[in-house]
Amino acid sequence: MEQIIRIRDIKLISIGNSKGVCIPKSLLKKYNFNDSLLLEETDNGLLLRSKNNKKLSWEDTYKSMAVEKEDWSDFDISISDGLGHEEF
């Protein structure tokens, strides 16, 4: 499974004594960003998250995976390698 990384060049804009960024409307909708966000500092940089981000149930997760129609055929090889029955 290949992860697609999208990079956008955005500019900081002055807002009083602070700086801000403009987030494109398509990303606001895609990530459910409304009036306020959570800003998290990580070892890899800053992470913006929606406050409305609820944890998916297993059922919601399966439905979401089905919609993506991802190809998991490579995973079949590791299931059939026979190591699942070995004691370590």
From TrEMBL:
Highest taxon of source: Bacteria
InterPro entries, sorted: SpoVT-AbrB_sf
Protein name (record): AbrB domain-containing protein
